[in-house]
Amino acid sequence: MSKRPVIALLAAPETSASVLYGLYDVLFSVGAVYPDMVAGTPGEELLDVRIVSEDGNGFHCLGNVPVEPHAAIDEMSGPDAMPDAVIVCDLYTSIHATPSGRYPHATAWLRQAHANGALVCSVCSGALLLADAGLLDGREATAHWAYRDMFGRHYPKVRFRSDSVLCLTTEADRLVTAGGVSAWHDLAVYLIARFCGYRHAIETAKVFLISGHSDGQSPYAVMTRPMDTTDAAISDCQAWIANSYDQPNPVEAMVSRSGLNARTFSRRFRAATGYAPIDYVQALRIEEAKQALETDSLPIEEVSVAVGYEDAASFRRIFKRRVGLTPAAYRRKFQRLSQIAGPTGGSRPAIADAPRAGSAST
């Protein structure tokens, strides 16, 4: 029998147990579990899956879950010991943190593994480690949507795809990044197909009921901009628009409120928030509309008017562009989730009484 492909799962104390052990269970089962389930005869394991860490010592990951690595990364170095693929599991990082330089030994190993021909992958915030290693410079990549601004601040050479669940545009460069935490499902299916063939990928997906994230990340993304506190005029406008986004001509109103000319206001607003003023208003309106669509039964035309769009066709067009789904499709998707969750003991407040999407708490 030929040597099984080796897949190394790089983990650290900031890693989620669900990602690490989920990947391990699924990849470890390839070739073995499906025939046992359908014919009663276990098959042969097709992948050699190993958990690795910087020093190889045991540790506890998020939730105080114990992890006993199979090896230290130094034990998997050199042309004869390098894995065929490396997956950097998620490494939880606050969106306000400075991610650079946290794992210098691991980033050096990732560069070496990639140079020696390994496929290098990441899940969620694990992409920060690939970016810190310089492997994503000039390339597209994805991670959880909440890290979009962090990539812009610390890794501006990376073309961040906040809409993507599995970024395969750099596949030819042996780099694949997966979005949010549960995007490891999509990555696992991709890796099984790549190393073991399409049939094994389908069979494993059937065993674990994996269906992928065909809608991408955009339907799940939330506006997470904190209130700016360094520019008083812009901060005041942010506070005002959080409760007035449904007003007519809101950008003109903010310019007037700031006492600045339009060009200066636009420049300072973008510097403080990262958004052009009209994009900021649209983001607030769409975020509020999403909250209504998730649980309310108001007609879409009424939701449109309630968030500031008199023209329902314009609302639908802008919503689809920003969210990736039509308002009706978004409602179906998330109201199904609310049905699964069951009654919560209370109804959602009406739009006028709901928490504002642009408040400082977001």
TrEMBL record:
Residues 235-333 form the HTH araC/xylS-type domain. SUPFAM superfamilies: Class I glutamine amidotransferase-like, Homeodomain-like. InterPro entries: Class_I_gatase-like, DJ-1/PfpI, Homeodomain-like_sf, HTH_AraC, HTH_AraC-typ_CS, INH-QAR, Tscrpt_reg_AraC-type_HTH. It comes from Albidovulum marisflavi. Residues 340-362 are annotated as: Disordered. This is Helix-turn-helix domain-containing protein. Keywords: DNA-binding, Transcription, Transcription regulation. It comes from the Bacteria.
